[in-house]
Amino acid sequence: MRNAGKIITVAAVAAALAACSPPNEQPSDLPPGADPTPSEQAAQPTQGTQQPPTQGEQDGQGEPCTAEDIEVTQSAEGEGYEVTIPKDCAEPTELLTRDLQPGSGPAAAEGDQLDLDYSIVAWSDGEVKESSFGTLGTLSVQLGEQQAGFEGWNEALQGAKQGTQRLIVVPETMGFAQDSDNPLNGETLVVVAEVVDIAPQQ
């Protein structure tokens, strides 16, 4: 009789364990212990939400440079300027300006003729490609008129005054883009311009 009681007790415990087991579990392809927890599943990124990298990010340079990122110092010879182009930001794709020194008198307006001294530096190698500092004569630019060869002067010189020293970053589409024979065609340019004189429109 004692053995019969033990058999009945064991059978009852087995039935209770079977009742507590989850019904019809599906087999997993993952190895033991590899099933993700709910928190891990929530932390996984959803496909299609990542933004494509910009050109600068693809080049490992981050955001485009600003005019403030470019360092300009007086040349050791006392004529013109030395320009240092940063390497930790991307090449700008729009016209940028920054006044290095404010001028005085009336601001230049459409139709005014500006006489300039200037230096042109290529973005690609940081070398001065053209300069009027220390030479005889200046460049004359009349605001509102199409400039032969070099574009961008009209927008870049708006509001300048006599004596203004201005840093200008000219994207390749506004430099010598229309002059296919110019060696600076397709080059982003950094220009330092100094307004020597302004002749108001007659």
Question: Helical stretch count?
Answer: 4
User: What is the residue-mean pLDDT, rounded to a whole number?
Assistant: 75
What spatial form do the alpha-carbon principal axes imply?
Answer: globular
Distance between the termini: 129 Å
Structural class: alpha+beta
- Give the biggest beta sheet: 6 strands, antiparallel
Based on CA atoms alone, the radius of gyration comes out at: 36 Å
Q: What is the N-to-C order of secondary-structure elements (H for helix, E for strand)?
A: HHHEEEEEEHEE
Report the β-strand fraction as a percent range: 15-25%
Q: Low-confidence stretches at least 5 residues in length (pLDDT < 50)?
A: 1-23, 38-43, 45-50, 53-60
Number of strands: 8
Describe the structure.
This protein has helices at 2-20, 38-43, 55-58, 153-156, and strands spanning 71-74, 81-84, 96-101, 113-122, 128-131, 139-142, 165-170, 189-199. By secondary structure, it is of the alpha+beta class. A hairpin with a 6-residue loop joins strand 1 (71-74) and strand 2. The longest helix is centred in the N-terminal third of the chain and has 19 residues, at 2-20. It is globular and about 45 Å long. The termini are far apart. The model is unreliable at 1-23, 38-43, 45-50 and 53-60 (pLDDT under 50).
A few lines on this structure:
The protein is an alpha+beta fold and 202 residues long. The protein has four helices and eight strands, in the order αααββββββαββ. A hairpin with a 5-residue loop joins β4 and β5.
